[in-house]
Amino acid sequence: MNPIEALLWSIALPGLGQLLNKRYVKGIFFVFLEFIINVQARFNEAILFSFNGETQLAIEHTNYQWLMFYPCLYFFAMWDAFKDAGGGKKSYAFLPFVFSAYFVTVGLIYSTTYRVFGVLLGPVWLPMLCVIPGAAAGLLLQKLLLAASMTKLSN
Q1: Which SS3 state, helix, strand or coil, does residue 116 take?
Q2: pLDDT of the chain along its 155 residues, tens only?
Q3: What does pTM read for this prediction?
Q4: I want to staple 18 with a disulfide (CB 3.0 to 4.6 A). Which of 23, 48, 77, 133 is the partner?
Q5: Per-domain boundaries in the chain
Q6: Strand, helix or coil for residue 81
Q7: Measured between alpha carbons, how far is 99 from 106 in angstroms, rounded to an integer?
Q8: Contact of 1 with 21, CB cutoff 8 Å
């Protein structure tokens, strides 16, 4: 399995990458968790409202107690599928995934009040935007740690 293909299928639905990697128990477990969290958080409703410009309705219908679990599940499933397919061989390759999960979670926390250029983005768009600084922070930290370890080795 191509690591990028496994990653992209896992983005589509957590657990699909694991199933394609023939990690059936893990894949079914991730699909099950995604389904439970998605239904309990009413996340599909939030997505529909958000895509139709009804941000306030998305906020009101979302169960944040459940949705807070989603970023870590989502990014861990992505990392796991990518790694099991042979990706992530470089040291600290997990950091962009971890920091994306952190930043998306923080974006979710502030999604009911934080505005970007005066626009309330809600529980779908703000967390999605937070992937960008999260991945960037993870990549930067990975680069710094790799440089530090190379410096340590050369001394």
Answers
A1: strand
A2: 899 999 999 999 999 999 999 999 999 999 999 999 999 999 999 999 999 999 999 999 999 999 999 999 999 999 999 999 999 999 999 999 999 999 999 999 999 999 999 999 999 999 999 999 999 999 999 999 999 988 877 76
A3: 0.92
A4: 23
A5: 3-154
A6: helix
A7: 11
A8: yes
